[in-house]
Design brief:
Blueprint (H helix, E strand, L loop, with lengths): L21 H12 L2 H9 L6 E2 H7 L5 H13 L3 E10 L2 E10 L1 H9 L8 H25 L4 H19 L7 E4 L3 E5 L5 E5 L1 H11 L4 E4 L1 E3 L2 H12 L8 E3 L6 E4 L8 E4 L15 H9 L2 E4 L4 H10 L6 E4 L3 H6 L1 H7 L5 E5 H9 L6 H6 L3 E5 L5 E5 L5 E3 L12 H14 L4 H15 L13
Parallel strand pairs: 4-7, 4-12, 5-10, 8-9, 12-13, 13-14, 14-15
Antiparallel strand pairs: 1-3, 2-3, 5-6, 10-11, 15-16, 16-17
Helix pairs in contact: 2-4, 5-6, 7-9, 8-16, 11-13, 16-17
């Protein structure tokens, strides 16, 4: 048993491919590991390079020809080497030449006996891809035998793999916890294309691009599309270890008619609460992560869930930003008013401000009375207005830029605001800098913005 005191400080997480029969397994292992010469032969090969028998014998001249030829035959017999015979003309003679190349399985064993530093990235990528294909090809018949649907099986395998990868990429500490959703954006202009989206996920990526250790909490469909979108977040250094994968979740698909008109977005969102792409329950792990974090961003979500979180988490010296979805304001107004007593910073756009005013709410006065300390109303290309309790409002105007896509600019603003506040910048300066960065983000062609400037 390997213990912490073992001499083996690291283990190579390597999959050994073996035949199915017990007798074949024994022969396979004995052939491969009983003689170091077989390993020396394997090591001679490069990924796609063919080596002829004569060259192998010359390279291993410190062994007898008989020993080398025996090892080659053994490797051919267990399908790690493929033998190719051809006729070469040497002078007036026709000579039969035997050459060899690695089989797909042989390629996998070949890299087992090489130092990673010897391999280039293409070889490693191709090897891992080849292994995955071989593994799936072998395991799929078992899914059919167990009467598991092919699509369900693939979704389960991919989702489980992503969840495992997410755990290995978990941050030990957090500066920002983002609550929100993932979505798929479909653009119709200037050409049809798809892009990763979801306001909460966009905020998480933008914050991570600024260098914040960010945790994204959401519910994502347990299928290949949901897994792909999570893989993208992992590649952006966003911690998704607490994301819930569920078959019940419906991924929002947002059709963007014009990237220069943020109001021209049509998103399909399920009414059934069970299908919503946001968390339904607050776990102890979520509370622990939120307590560790220096800030919390509340985006799309269920009001009762937000309320439970805020009532349980330690809010001392923590930046809490609430940016409600317009559905929250339209259909869950009372819950919205309950949430803002816990949130010191509230972000609205002009459409959401209008919804509140249409309900007879005096903005910002009654929001201040309910507990809000600072209110920010973003105004698109006209910047933002900052309202601070007891002070005159301040207007911040953006710089002129060559705008190509306004979708996600509000997400970029929110991430930038939290970043600057965490760096100790006062609220007025933070809004000013965020208006500037948000404007710059509109020069990027897709919904998901990157703000790194370090």
């Amino acid at each position: 048993m390997i213990t912490q005191n073992s001499a083996f400080k690291e283990l190579h997480p390597y999959v050994i491919l073996l035949p199915t029969g017990i007798g074949e397994k024994v022969q396979y292992i004995m052939t491969l590991f009983s003689s170091p010469v077989t390993i020396e032969v394997l090591r001679l090969f490069e990924w796609d390079r063919e080596i002829c028998q004569k060259d192998i014998i010359m390279s291993l001249s410190h062994h007898s020809n008989k020993t080398v030829l025996s090892s080659i035959r053994k490797l051919v017999s267990i399908n790690l080497l493929e033998e190719v015979e051809r006729i070469e003309i040497r002078g007036n003679r026709r000579v039969k030449v035997k050459c060899y190349k690695l089989t797909d399985t042989g390629k996998w064993y070949n890299i087992l006996f090489k130092d990673v530093d010897e391999l280039n990235s293409r070889v490693i990528r191709d090897a891992v891809t080849s292994l995955s294909v071989m593994f799936m090809a072998k395991i799929l018949p078992f899914s059919e035998y167990l009467k598991i649907g092919f699509i369900d099986f693939i979704n389960q395998v991919v989702s489980s793999a992503i969840k495992s990868a997410a755990k290995t990429k978990r941050h030990r500490e957090y500066e920002l916890v983002v609550f929100g959703s993932l979505a798929l954006d479909v653009y119709l202009k200037p050409e049809v294309k798809m892009s990763s989206g979801g306001s909460g996920a966009n905020v998480a990526v933008a914050a991570s691009s600024l260098g914040l250790k960010t945790l994204f909490i959401s519910r994502v469909p347990a299928n290949t599309i949901g897994s792909y979108l999570l893989a993208e977040l992992i590649s952006e250094n966003v911690d998704v270890s607490l994301v819930e994968l569920s078959r019940d979740v419906e991924l929002p698909v947002c059709v963007i008619l014009d990237p220069l008109e943020p109001t021209q977005i049509k998103c399909k969102i399920q009414v059934d609460v069970r299908s919503l792409p946001v968390i339904h329950r607050i776990t102890d792990e979520i509370i622990q992560a939120s307590n560790i974090s220096r800030s919390i961003y509340l985006g799309e979500g269920i009001c009762k869930t937000h309320l439970e979180l805020l009532s349980r988490v330690n809010r001392d010296n923590k930046i809490i930003v609430f940016r409600p979805h317009k559905i929250t304001l339209e259909q869950y107004f009372d819950e919205f008013m309950s949430i803002i007593q816990y949130s010191s910073i509230l972000i609205l756009n002009e459409e959401k401000e209008h919804i509140l005013k249409s309900k007879g709410l005096e903005v910002p006065g009654e929001l201040f009375k309910a507990g809000v300390e600072e209110l920010i109303v973003t105004r698109g290309s006209r910047g933002a207005i900052l309202y601070i309790r007891g002070k005159e409002p301040k207007i911040f105007t953006p710089p002129l830029v060559n705008t190509v896509n306004t979708i996600g600019a509000g997400d970029a603003f929110s991430a930038s605001l939290i970043y600057h506040l965490l760096k100790g910048v006062n609220i007025e300066e933070a809004v000013k800098k965020s208006v500037y960065l948000s404007a710059l983000s509109t020069t990027q062609p897709l919904s998901r913005k990157h703000l790194g400037f370090r």
